[in-house]
Amino acid sequence: MEHMISIFNTRGVISCAFDLQGHLENMECHFNWQLDCSPSKLENLHQDLKDRIYFGCNWMCQLHSLLGYILHALGSRDEALTHLKEAEKMIKEGDEEKDCLLLVNQANLAWVHYFRGELTESRAYLEEVTRLQEALPAPSGSQIHPELSAQKGWALLMFERNHQQRAIECFKMAVTSDPTKRLFRKGLVLAMDKVYFGQPLTPDLRREITDNLRVVKQMDENDVWVATLYLINALRNGEDREQFRQQVNTLADKLIASRHLDGLSNVLFLLGSYFSEYDKALDVAETMLEQFPDSIIAKKNLASSLKWKVFSLRKKTEERTVLATRAIGIYEEVNTKHSVKENISLAKMHVNVGNTDAANHIYKSLLDQKNISDTEKQFLFFQYGEYLNWERKMTSEAIDMYIKAVQVPVVSDYRDKCFQKLVSIVKSGRHKRCDEIYSSLFDLPYVGRRHNGQLFLKK
User: Fold this and answer.
1) What is the rounded distance in angstroms from the CA atom of residue 120 to the CA atom of residue 128?
2) Residues paired with residue 450 on neighbouring β-strands, in sequence order
3) Which DSSP string corresponds to 102-167?
4) Which of 61, 122, 417, 433 is most exposed, with minimal Cβ within 10 Å?
5) Is the pLDDT of residue 9 over 50?
6) pTM given for the model
7) Exposed, middle or buried by CB within 10 Å (0-12, 13-18, 19+), for 430?
């Protein structure tokens, strides 16, 4: 800290380091929105944003600004500055929502210069942000300007699920201020989809999601991303899937014709999970990769489609081996070191070609990682437990993994699944560790599984 204060005094910028830092901490920007997350999430976002910037999209300046923050978080401050400067140039050359976009980006620049020890530059950007804030007053009853709230919502939407609940709140505020703005409503339905996916919903919440989807779909019938979400929501609500089969195939063809990647994962999810059209999903994924041969997004979606096709083939055949081998090659190309989900998919493909040693090495490497999120830990413990139980016939070691998962104090689907497996073992009474499992569960103050959104079993 003495070194920091001396820098300030030498440059004659400000007398106290905490003065500038205190002002920086009050700005609305990525650095102050509590976007901290696991290295795997940061690495995946880095890949995804660079992919989208390279192939083009409608939100280039926002993506450059967010990428600047992510690169800073990953330790690449020079590259972070490059992308933030590029965003600054794009925003100043544009017209729409210039002040709001500039406010967030210049606040990011103020922070990056501050961390680089370039305090004169940081102070200059801070002064510019202060002027912009005066031009963007919050409406009555709101904390920040609706455009700024929506920007914050889009940033939160990119990160972990615990951040995405706050995204819903940001978009709701923006929609309340301007119900006619489609991007506000689209952000809200995407946030609600991410937060409530796979969870039991009350009738009122289900109706709210459906109504918002219907409105935003009507605002732009050509948006494949929203159209697929609308169908997924209808199918979750129990509507007859056969009436939507043709619509899904039409949307797949529309996506290919659009030469745009947004909505690809939803199309593949619908084709595979709801209609078991694995060959069609593979055709779509292959075609999109032909259109975008260097796209990490396209490659990841093709690898996922190959994986689900492999899982659909019950018997060990040459076709299954060929498909799994190709999936392995793609995963090894696109996976990052810390990527829990993708590396577990890679491990599963190795199992399908009979290489359990490679699979075990992947699981062990993931278990050795220090900086993975609690939900990633639960996912890893569950998947490794299943691998040990079914592939290695190591039931006791699998039990250890399930217990580790329920000991992580966050609510998730995978903690629920591990809890249910442990309860089944205890109820069967067939394992020598039944009493130990029973005791370990009830020593935890929060143990249980969700039923109607609540824990039904507590100590």
Assistant:
1) 13
2) 455
3) HHHHHHHHHHHHHHTT-HHHHHHHHHHHHHHHHHSPPPTT-SS-HHHHHHHHHHHHTS-HHHHHHH
4) 433
5) no
6) 0.90
7) exposed
Q: Is 318 exposed, middle or buried (0-12, 13-18, 19+ CB in 10 A)?
A: exposed
Show the tokens assigned to 459.
């100590």
User: If we measure between CA atoms, which residue out of 118, 103, 107 comes closest to residue 13?
Assistant: 118
Residues 6 or more apart whose CB falls under 8 angstroms from that of 353 comprise 321, 324, 325, 328
| 77-89 per-residue burial string, b: 16 or more CB within 10 A, e: under 16 | eeebbebbebbbe
Residues 320-333: tens digit of each pLDDT: 999 999 999 999 99
Amino acid at the residue 328:
I
Q: Which two tokens stand for residue 104?
A: 């967030």
Q: The tokens of 244 are what? A: 């939507």
Count of all residues that appear for the chain in the document? 459
pLDDT in tens, 275-310: 999 999 999 999 999 999 999 999 999 999 999 999
